[in-house]
Amino acid sequence: MSISLTRSDFPAGFSFGAATSAYQIEGHRFGGAGSSHWDTFAATPGNVARGENGSLACDHYHRFEEDLDLAAAMGLDMYSFSTSWARVLPEGRGTPNPEGLDFYDRLADACLARNLKPFATLYHWELPSPLADLGGWCNRDIAGWFADFTEVLMRRIGDRMHLTAPINEPWCVAWLSHFLGQHAPGLRDIRAATRAMHHVGLAHGRSIEVMRGLGMSGLGCVTNHEYAAPADASPEAAQAAQLYDGIYNRWFLGGFRNGEYPADVLQGLEPYMPVGWQDDMATVSAPVDWLGLNYYTRKLIAPGASGLWGDLAETTGDLPQTSMGWEIYPEGLYHFLTWVSENYARDLPIYVTENGMSADENVANGKVDDPDRIDYINSHLGVVQRATIEGVPVAGYFFWSLLDNFEWALGYDKRFGLIHVDFDGMARTPKASYHALRSALRR
Ligand code: GCO
Predict the structure, then answer these.
(1) Tens digit of pLDDT for each residue in 2-26?
(2) How many CB atoms lie within 10 A of CB 216?
């Protein structure tokens, strides 16, 4: 099986990359990294499958050169990584960990040495435990703590970044983790969630301001999106899907790009918003240079049983699914590319910053066949190409993920990698999708 499209099917300068994140691949036990709220969340029974955690992960901390060799051999133009706040500032503030800064310095140079343009995301979820102790994303002070982390890290590596984003998937950081409780810190409280929904945006804006002050460019925001459709023809399901869309898809883009939150969501969250939040919106909407969209799937939405505001039930339809139980729905990616272009981009370039699928593959005779992933790439790259032909300013596409890795609360058996990782011996085995992409990118 092959990837049907090649570079010539995309606009000149269109970039292909692969994405990873610090806690999911590095090995957080190494290099002086401090405790993060993911370490303690994972140490609490019932939160992560099989009690797994990111302490070893893919041992990328020691194997990053081998991994970047594989990324470069594929013909990728960019490598998207994230940096661990707890590795750079084990206390979250104050004295940096020199080993942490040295690691990201080496990583930046290793990318450039392989002609991989570095794309850094400062925060992909490993909040230092001492800051979690102070309320984490529920405490407005986190915006200043995050700005200080930005300054420490980007003074060291900012000169070499091609693209930089402050926070990966604000919805996951705030709503998934403080309302739904599925990710660290595992809270289920609408007041905590509302504060996080605002403070994440404020921290994003403060970080952008710091990087502008350092003279950096290529600064963007990365939001994740799910296509929300009504589970049935009832008006209640339509209303539920609209609210799911507001919380998931419109809240952060509204803040970042329009300096205002969507009225339908604010109606439910206003009573819990921090006093004076309106005065922060100029910072939340600090100008950026590009938009990043993470997309995987769609959800069919119905009202939840409690009747409480925000209680929304997800159901899955009859489309083919990945091992995450996510339906494969490339039309949703096309929708978001056109919808974001029409409503938020205002001609800024748009990157697909994460797209991919999980499957439970194994190595057989030194190979890993993953035909479903090749199909997924073909169908999703196909809608990206269609959007570019229609004039949507898509500037690049990042596959999630370069490596099989720690899939948060689901642990290590949800394999998203183009490269298989044997988590016992750490052997890397490029999958058939890796080889198919390699030949497509080099054709
Ligand atoms: C996310 C995160 C990644 C996930 C990937 C698969 O989008 O949730 O950025 O860390 O591993 O998306 O769920």
Answers:
(1) 999 999 999 999 999 999 999 999 9
(2) 17
Q: Residues with catalytic annotation? A: 169, 354
| Residue 129 CB neighbours (<10 A) | 20
Pocket of ligand 1 (CB under 6 A): 21, 24, 168-169, 172, 224, 294, 354, 400, 407, 416
Per DSSP, which regions of 183-289 are E strands? 220-230
Q: How far apart are CA 139 and CA 142, in angstroms?
A: 6
Q: Which DSSP symbol is given to 214?
A: T
- Determine the pLDDT at residue 385: 98
Instruction: State the Cα angle at 91 between 139 and 158, rounded to 5°.
Output: 90
**C-alpha 359 to ligand 1 mean position (Å):** 14
Domains of the chain as residue ranges with CATH? 7-442 (3.20.20.80)
What would the pLDDT profile of 116-161 be if each residue is shown by its tens digit?
Answer: 999 999 999 999 999 999 999 999 999 999 999 999 999 999 999 9
Pairing between β-strand 312-315 and β-strand 350-355 as defined by DSSP bridges:
unpaired
| pLDDT score of 317 | 94
Tell me which amino acid residue 33 is: A
Q: What confidence score (pLDDT) does residue 116 get?
A: 98
- The 3-state DSSP class for residue 146 equals helix
DSSP string, 148-167: HHHHHHHHHHGGG-SEEEEE
408-425 mean pLDDT: 98
pTM above 0.90, yes or no: yes
Contact 71, 116 (CB under 8 A): yes
The rounded Å distance from CA 223 to ligand 1 centre is 11
Distance between Cα 168 and ligand 1 center (Å) = 9
Residue with tokens 């091992």: 323
Counting atoms of ligand 1 from 1, which one is nearest the CA of 358? 6
